[in-house]
Amino acid sequence: MMPIRFSFRRAALVLGASFLLLGVHAQGIFYSAGFESGSWPAEFDLGPEVERLDSDGSGTGEFVPAWRIGNAMDANAGAFFPVPNVPTGNRFAMANDDAEPCDCDLAEVALVLNAPSFVGRSGIALECRVFHERTLGGGDAFVEVSLGGGSWILLATVPVLVGDWQPLLVNLGAFDGLDDVRIRFRWSDGGNWASGFAVDDIVLRERSPNDLSIEAAHIGDPGASPFQTGDQRLAYAQIPLEQTAPLIVSAELMNRGTQALDGMNLSASVALDGTVQLVLDTLLAGSLNPGERTIIVLSSDWIPASAGAVTVTFTASSSGTDDEPTNNSSVAALRITGPGWDLGYGAMARDMGQEQGVRGDTTGFILANRMELPNSGSVVRGMSAYVTANSALGAQLRAILFDVNLAFVDTSTRYTLTQEDLDRAGSGAPLYLPFVGLEPLAAGDYFVGVQLLDGTGSAFVGLSGSSPTGAALFMQGVNFDVEYLRSTPMVRLHLEDYAVGVAERNVDQGVIVHVHPVPMHDSGVLRFSLDRASQSMWRLMDLHGREEMRSELGILGAGEHSYSIDVQGLAAGVYFVELHTDGQRSVRRVVVAR
User: How far apart are CA 43 and CA 113, in angstroms?
Assistant: First the structure.
């Protein structure tokens, strides 16, 4: 029997983590407010307007709302409020004192929701997600409640989390059955030109007594310290086959009900290319109080033996009846890469494959990710980075490799960005730079990065997904001062040569496949030719191996075939279309743009 090791950590009502919050937890919702239309719902009161200030901090006599609706680009227009663009293009409510329309003093601002009546309702909770960094001298943020316009009652102080959205649940059960309940989000910039505060996906919900939920599923341990070397605990989207290690997975559980839960069980079924390899199962000691969260880490001795898509399906249960079983399961995925994966080529990646922000500058810098190599003897072939299209033509870059102590290991030659590179960046294609030394590496942690050479122009690289402190860094200045990032640079390590400027290779000697256009907006075409009749099917997968769509084609005759691919319902990003014909498999990259 496969050895199982597990640990768990508890958290209070709010936990900073990558998250999947609302949407699937629809039971009992009686009010919801997103801001995708760009207009304020009628139930919101923005409070008094604030005076705009000039560059010297003097009033201009012009008054504007303290709150606005915008997206991540709007938020970071002043370069001091880097709200992650999750999901892509999402709009949210924000108080931001450093971007249009407000260069203002936001020492005390409040956004008030005049909630619908609570009469006849019970077990009420407020759920939302917030972005609250408190950087550059920003102040605290609070959630408060008032009855009928009376005094405000403090319910929650919003924790600080740098670089990521965080879920928030506030128990409103003390106000069950009452009318004229007002909820406000209060924030202060601390009297400084700080960053801001953002809130989105606001929901009021009646909770059931018993409701255990899996809030997030992870490959790796989201609470592990990157500074503890020796095992592979960081969250990876891709790992080269030669650097696979015993699998570690984790799930975040939450008690969304009103009663304490006990007798909880978590199982994880691990499959490689759809074939179950092992099942991890554990019974949790103790109980989980209402609103409480815990992260369960499951370790095993299983190491993948071949390239492919690893999917881990988590299922949670507790003693007694669960009033909403639909949120008791979740899936995490990992791609094991080898020479045959299109755009993989032995790639080691920690980003989520979809740009959520950017980092760069007009002066020299190094942007790098920590990679954990548990096995000695690998030759690092190169680095790829998702350099964005707003980088400067002629900017000079190089790949760079450091050991765990940031001592130099290897570099590429200088590379000058061409117009073709910028055009490819606009369609979501990475820039690949090969290393020079090509010497086998010892096991250990390494930083792989991209360096902009000072004085050659500007360069910007995509960010995607969250990182624990120590797993990603930005270095700049004469002494290359280190800033640890909470967002993951889209920088990848390659242990196989990357096919540059040539057609993408097929997996397992499969049929030649063409996909166009690149990028796709609403639809595209899959085209291939068969030399004999074959049982055929195709499916579309995201970068984590999750299947987005599938089409069983039956037995197709020899000759040319083409099929339409509808991508209107997909988020912008990179996907793979996989064609199966009589035991052969071919893969092509699909870029979806919005």
Answer: 6
At residue 442 the predicted structure's pLDDT band, cuts being 50, 70 and 90, is very high
Indicate the pLDDT class of residue 143, thresholds 50, 70 and 90. Answer: very high
Specify whether the backbone of 302 is left (phi greater than 0), alpha (psi in -120 to 50) or beta: beta
For residue 315, give Cα distances in angstroms to 193, 217, 250: 46, 10, 12
Q: Residue 184 gets which letter from DSSP?
A: E
Between CA 208 and CA 210 the distance in angstroms is 6
Q: Which pLDDT band holds residue 213 (cuts at 50, 70, 90)?
A: very high
Structure-block tokens of residue 141: 């943020």
Q: What pLDDT, in 10s, does the model give residues 70-118?
A: 998 888 876 678 888 888 788 999 998 777 767 777 888 999 999 999 9
CA distance 81 to 194: 8
At a CB cut-off of 8 Å and minimum separation 6, what does 384 contact? 347, 430, 431, 432, 433, 491, 492, 494, 498
Instruction: Check residue 561 and give left, alpha or beta (phi > 0: left; psi -120 to 50: alpha).
Output: beta
Query: Are the C-beta atoms of residues 447 and 401 closer than 8 Å to each other?
Result: yes
What is the pLDDT confidence band of residue 590, given thresholds at 50, 70 and 90? confident
Q: What angle do CA 218, 17, 153 make, to 5 degrees?
A: 145
135 contacts 98 by C-beta, under 8 angstroms: no
Q: What angle do CA 324, 329, 330 make, to 5 degrees?
A: 135
CB 406 within 8 A of CB 386: no
In this structure, what token pair is assigned to residue 38?
């760009």
101 prior amide bond cis, ω within 30: yes
**pLDDT of 508 strictly over 50:** no
pLDDT of residue 545: 63
SS3 135: coil
Which range has the worst mean pLDDT, 284-298, 394-408, 495-509, 538-552?
A: 495-509
| End-to-end CA, the chain | 48
Tokens 């075939």 correspond to what residue?
561
Residue with the two structure tokens 């006990």:
262
334 near 236, Cβ under 8 Å?
Answer: yes
